[in-house]
Write a structure and sequence with these properties.
This protein is an all-alpha fold. Among the domains are: 1-85, Tetratricopeptide repeat domain (Serine Threonine Protein Phosphatase 5, Tetratricopeptide repeat, Alpha Horseshoe), CATH 1.25.40.10; 188-285, Alpha Horseshoe (Serine Threonine Protein Phosphatase 5, Tetratricopeptide repeat), CATH 1.25.40.10. Helix content is 80%, strand content 0%. Helix 5 runs antiparallel to helix 6, helix 6 (88-100) packs parallel to helix 8 and helix 11 (172-185) runs antiparallel to helix 12. The termini are far apart. This is Tetratricopeptide repeat protein.
């Protein structure tokens, strides 16, 4: 904010700056207490003092968003863009707000507007890639991921999402190479092993699929890993072990999609019958 004042030739009164910093501190305290309404009131005052500063609009919009008043958040950001139409931060925040609301098309339009101003704006590149992936436009998404990787090649979140996009695009070998590199850097990240195991499964390499899913579970067991390991073991013909992990999935399915749980429960009953029949046939011989 101070830099903007200096660049416009307007040096702020030190007393005004102190008062403003006090207000910001108070607003942050209210935010920490989850009292977003009171925080918003203070940021409204700051906005009236600094109506040409993008952060004034962003801070107020964030409080509205945290209070689940998304329409108010959007109005604040749109008001800011009327005053500062080329603000990257305002356009980006508007895009993120639309994204939270599930309005993917408007979110993408906002991010594209950011990239017209600054083609190397990282958050807009990453968000565009993610939105395009959701829309099923995998090839376009990959192009944005690649541009983002040129800017932040070490960004773990970006690399994970790029690998996921490669896998869901059917580019399994490329995804596996990416995951294996991540595994070297982050040997205790269960999500890497989990995703790698699923990708190996899609490729048909069941041994490596099982190996990585078991490693994921040893680090941090999740219902998702239990289910995918059960499927991989079933494909390998290891039915008893598959049933074991399917049972673990059902025992830890709190918060899972209800329709999926019902289907898995039916599958569990089917697998148990298959195992009993198999044991019965063996005893006959």
């Amino acid at each position: 904010d101070l830099a903007e004042d200096i660049s416009s030739g307007q040096l702020p009164d030190p007393k005004d700056r102190i008062d403003e910093l006090k207000m910001i501190h108070q607003a942050e305290m209210y935010e920490f207490q989850a009292n977003y309404q009171q925080a918003a009131k203070i940021f409204e005052k700051i906005l009236s003092i600094r109506p040409t500063t993008p952060s004034s609009y962003v801070n107020l919009a964030l409080m509205y968003a945290k209070a689940k008043k998304f329409d108010e958040a959007i109005k604040v950001l749109e008001k800011g863009l009327q005053k500062i139409p080329d603000s990257e931060i305002l356009l980006s925040r508007l895009g993120h707000t639309y994204l939270v609301l599930g309005r993917s098309k408007q979110a993408l339009e906002s991010m594209q507007a950011v990239l017209k101003i600054n083609p190397r704006y990282f958050d807009a590149l990453l968000a565009s890639a993610w939105i395009l992936g959701i829309m099923g436009k995998k090839e376009e998404a990959l192009s944005y991921y690649k541009k983002a990787l040129e800017i932040e090649p070490e960004n773990k979140f970006l690399r994970m999402n790029y690998a996921i996009n490669l896998a869901t695009s059917g580019m399994f070998d490329e995804a596996i190479d990416f995951y294996n590199n991540l595994k070297i850097e982050y040997p205790d990240d269960y999500q890497i092993y989990q995703n790698l195991g699923i990708t190996y499964g899609n490729l048909g390499d069941l041994d490596k699929s099982v190996e990585n899913l078991e490693r994921a579970i040893s680090i941090h067991p999740t219902p998702f890993s239990y289910l995918n390991l059960a499927v991989a073991l079933r494909k390998k013909g290891e039915l008893r072990e598959a049933i074991h992990y399917l049972k673990l999935y059902l025992e830890n399915a709190q918060g899972e999609d209800e329709a999926r749980v019902r289907e898995v429960r039916k599958e569990f009953i089917t697998w148990e019958k298959m195992l009993k029949n198999r044991i019965g046939n063996m005893m006959m011989y």
